[in-house]
Design goal:
The protein is α+β, with helices and mostly antiparallel strands. The chain contains 10 helices and 12 strands. A 5-stranded antiparallel sheet has the order 4-5-8-6-7. Strands 9-10-11-12 form a 4-stranded antiparallel sheet, with helices on both faces.
C-alpha cells in the first residue's frame, strides 16, 4: 500500500465537500477499491470514507411502496432488513461473496463501481430502480452505461437506491466459484405493467436488459414462453471460465430457472 490521506465525514454534505479536492476518491465498503489500490491500479491522494454517514444507511419504505436503501448500507443489512418486503433482493444480497464481503461491501459502492459481473446492477436494472445522488435522481435504464461505466459525475455520491417492489421476482446466479461473482446472473421481476429481465456477468458492455424475453414473459409468464429464444454470443465475455457461446447459453438457462422459481 502507498501513503494517502483519509477523511471520515459524518454527513453527506461533508463528504461532498471533501470530494471536491484534487485527486479524491469516495470509499464505500472498500471491497473493490482496496485491492485496486494494493495493485496500484488506482492511486488517489485522498480517500473519503462513506461508511460513517448515518443518513446513508438502512432500509425503509417510501410513500409509493418502493424499497429505499441507503447507499452506505451493507449487503448483510439488505439481506436481513429487506427480506420481509423484497425477498428476491434479500436473497441476492445474502449470496454476494462471503460473510466478510457482505459485512463490509455496500450497495452504493457496488452500483458506483458497476462491475460487469456484480449482482446488484442486475437487481437495480431488473427492478427499474432509481439511483439517487447528492444532486439528482437517475433511472436505472439511464444509469448503467457500459462496463465499469455509469452516469455518475466526478464528486457525485450515491445516497440512496429506490427500488419498486414487483409482484414476484427471482435472481438466479451461476457462480464463478473462486470469486463468487456471477459467471451469469439473471434477475426477473414481474410488475403489473410487464416483466423486466436484467442480465449480469455475460456481456462485455456490462449489465443489460433482455428485451425479447421481457416481451415473451409479459405475454405469458412461464418458462415455456422462452422456448426458442436466445441471445447472440456476439459481444459476450469470453475468458478461461467460459466462452461467449457458453455465456449466451447460460443467459437462457438462468432466465428459465428464475421464472420457474418465482
Amino acid at each position: 500500500m502507498y501513503a494517502f490521506e483519509i477523511e471520515r465525514p459524518a454527513t453527506i454534505a461533508d463528504a461532498v465537500a471533501a470530494l471536491q479536492g484534487d485527486d479524491a476518491q469516495a470509499l464505500g465498503g472498500g471491497q473493490t477499491l482496496i485491492p485496486t489500490l494494493k495493485a496500484r491500479l488506482a492511486m488517489p491522494a485522498k480517500l473519503v470514507s462513506l461508511s460513517g454517514i448515518g443518513e446513508m444507511q438502512g432500509v425503509c419504505h417510501s410513500d409509493d411502496g418502493a424499497l429505499c436503501i441507503g447507499g452506505a448500507t451493507t449487503h448483510a443489512t439488505v439481506a436481513t432488513e429487506a427480506a420481509a418486503h423484497y425477498p428476491a433482493l434479500a436473497a441476492l444480497a445474502a449470496h454476494i461473496g462471503d460473510p466478510a464481503v457482505r459485512n463490509r461491501g455496500t450497495i452504493g459502492g457496488s452500483l458506483a463501481n458497476n462491475d460487469p459481473s456484480a449482482c446488484y446492477p442486475a437487481a437495480a436494472l431488473g427492478s427499474g430502480a432509481v439511483i439517487i445522488t447528492n444532486t439528482r435522481s437517475i433511472p436505472a435504464d439511464d444509469y448503467f452505461q457500459g462496463m465499469f461505466t455509469t452516469a455518475l459525475e466526478d464528486g457525485e455520491v450515491i445516497t440512496e437506491v429506490r427500488l419498486p417492489v414487483p409482484e414476484t421476482a427471482n435472481y438466479q446466479k451461476f457462480v464463478q466459484p473462486a470469486s463468487r461473482f456471477a459467471l451469469v446472473g439473471v434477475f426477473v421481476a414481474k410488475f403489473p405493467d410487464g416483466v423486466r429481465v436484467a442480465v449480469t456477468g455475460a456481456s462485455e458492455n456490462g449489465v443489460f436488459r433482455w428485451t425479447e424475453a421481457e416481451a415473451a414473459l409479459s405475454a405469458d409468464f412461464s418458462a415455456g414462453a422462452l422456448a426458442g429464444l436466445g441471445v447472440s454470443p456476439d459481444g459476450m465475455i469470453a475468458d478461461l471460465h467460459g466462452s461467449s457461446a457458453y455465456r449466451a447459453h447460460l443467459v437462457a438457462v438462468m432466465t428459465k430457472r428464475a421464472v420457474n422459481a418465482c
